[in-house]
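Batch 3, record 17
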Amino acid sequence: MISFKKFELANGLRFIVNTDTHTPFIVVNTLYNVGSKHESPDKTGFAHLFEHLMFGGSKNIPSFDEPLQKVGGDNNAFTNSDITNYYITVPKENIETAFWLESDRMLELNFSQKSLDTQKNVVIEEFKQRYLNRPYGDAWLYLRPLAYKNHPYQWATIGKKIEHIQEATLQDVKDFFFHHYAPNNSIISISGNISLKKAKRLAQKWFGSIPHRDISTMEREKEEQQTEKRSQTLEQDVPLHAIHKAYHMCERSHPDFHAIDLLSDILSNGKSSRMYNNLIQKQKLFSDLQAFITGEDDPGLFIITGTVMPGFTIEQANEAIESELQSIRKTPIREYELQKVKNKVESTLIFSESSILHKAMNLAKYELLGDAGLINHETEKYACVTIEDIQRVAQFVFSETNESTLLYQSTSQA
Amino acid sequence: MKDINRTIPPKFKTIAKLSFTKAKEKKLANNIPVYTINAGEQDILKIDILFNAGEWYQDQALVSSSTVQLLQEGSANFSAEDIAEKLDFMGSYVYYNAGKHTTGISVFTLSKYIDDTLEIIEDSIKNPLFLEDNFATYTAKKKQQYAIEKQKVEVIAQKKYAQILFGANHPYGISHEPEDFDNLSIADIKKFHKTHYTSENCKIIISGNIKPEHFEILSRRFGTPFGKIAGEKAHVQEFAIDPSLEKNHHIEKPGAVQSAIRIGKLLVNKYNPDYPALQVLNTVLGGYFGSRLMSNIREDKGYTYGIGSGIVSHKTAGYFVIVTQVGQDVCEQAKQEIYYELKKLRTETIPEEELQTVKNYMKSTLARNFDGIFALSESFKTILEYDLTYSYYSRFWKTIQNITPAELKTLANTYLHEDSMYEIIAGSK
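Prediction for the assembled complex:
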């Protein structure tokens, strides 16, 4: 149970405050409701590139990091397909520095060509490091466009290709800022050793004068129902054959979300899970095998990825996965199995409440979904999932025409 | 509302002193020391069961890590499936980690499940079966995971780096290859377990919202002598460090779009009085986001997604290393900038303001290392492994407080001369 209070400024900026006096630190988490799904198809990777630029100095402050480090603060950020999220940890005595810095970059960035040019290079190196220079690193660059034909989830957050990053101009950056970075498109959650009163005073002082802005509300294309089984094979010099499968599933706020999340746990969370037991331990088909959901706000994906042990063909391995999926569609799971994954979820939630950073991030994320208070009902929602729910969701998620399969055929294992 | 001046930073304070909950030592009836750190409000506990059973003590590659990993693969009273089922059902998480000297079984559990969780852990530590089938599955699987890792330039560079500094036969330099799994036998694992997983060789840390009954449970589970063979002691080996004579090494990885760079040298470890000051110097160079390496090579030149430096302390030796992956086409330029920054530490005095920022940042980082039960327990584990006391941290704090730019420049000349560095590049020429 996380206790919190909410308030909103006149410009539309929402604040959530969780007071935790057991720590001498405070986390300030700033979520912007902009991710790679808000990009246009010919300018992808922009939300993420922009995240880098947010550290290049703002209207009144030449450097973001230096003054923060000087007061003992630390910070980072991430971008995904739905949001861009910035977080600062700072000693409680120096909380005002966090408000000062975070508010100035919400007010306006220092749009500099030098910073843009450098960060384009940095992001291109990130692209190489994470997607190109390691075995299977490019899986998401192929899997997303295989699964999505209309919706912007068809490109990875890093962007479709390096050229999109290279082509970004300073004007693009300015447009992006004023269309997406605004108090009325942001949620700030604070967790740590701070009173509500102090948070309110600082919020008004530093963020109160930032103008409300008109937000770009481009309608996103809806993904049409997939009607055929899709498959793509890559021949690469990777050590082992590998399989990546994607199935369409519901959006984050859909009532079936929790059942599908538990379905992924039953298949692969922990050493007692079905796929680990049957396919890794017993049949010894895979060296690694994972099932998980992307958990995105719009309809997302149920993913299965595995690397195939030498001596087995990629077809054998793929059939074994599909047979596991058939089995969970046909036969109801045991009550015990369901209880087990529910317990795991509950335990994970309790552990996450011991960290002010996790608390702050979760409060903002759930507020974006509709209400920060939803975080305190998650355990309940998982608890309500029934055996019938699991079977029902398995039947439609794992239907053949909902499947996209990416195969890595290893040229060295051929 | 009155106007605010956004160009003036708010007033700030530096953290005046380091304060935190300390571990208290108790003893079980069999003399196992138990360190309790009572903190936190949630009903959760972390229990670290530590043995001197790291790679230092193994006679052959992979024995130490495989032994601890295989503890979860079946014991006298619980099959591998039982262990996994029961731990998952309680939502308990167990991590098995083999370090250079210490092997740790770290248990995260809801307080209400401590006894049921420890019942399993107790049996898997005291009575593991090491069955042939589980062993074969484990080694076959791990071998493939290693084969995938081996394709990454950063892994290639790091392995080579350790080997060059310490020599291929030294526990700090040994490189575990996929093929080494072929030479591993179950008899080696059983023998290693028998000699090292004993109550005489064990320490326990428990942290969280600890109640008296939790200590009683620990006593019941681990308080009688186990694994002990009268008179027999695990033999402690001595190893000579045997660094490479060649300073520069290139490992070709055809087609790599980025090159992994490792530049560094052997350096003192935590026991040396210069160690805290060297950590300050390292932070200036590459130890935080605003460091010189990051500012120059990432934020100014854009050659990399990230660059950093670190001083790694092992129990009997330490080393310094600069770590990065850069575009294949800018590798030479990146190297030049790295050497430029190293030389600058030695030839120019660090400006007061920059040092002040580093000092404040480091104090805060140190304070964060004691914030929360998991952090408290990790920080204590560090000094326990080195047989140090909490005074290590107060000395560290004092050094941060008092060190001067002139002293740092002297240190840079003594320890970090750019000509004394080894250089390893893994990538495509």
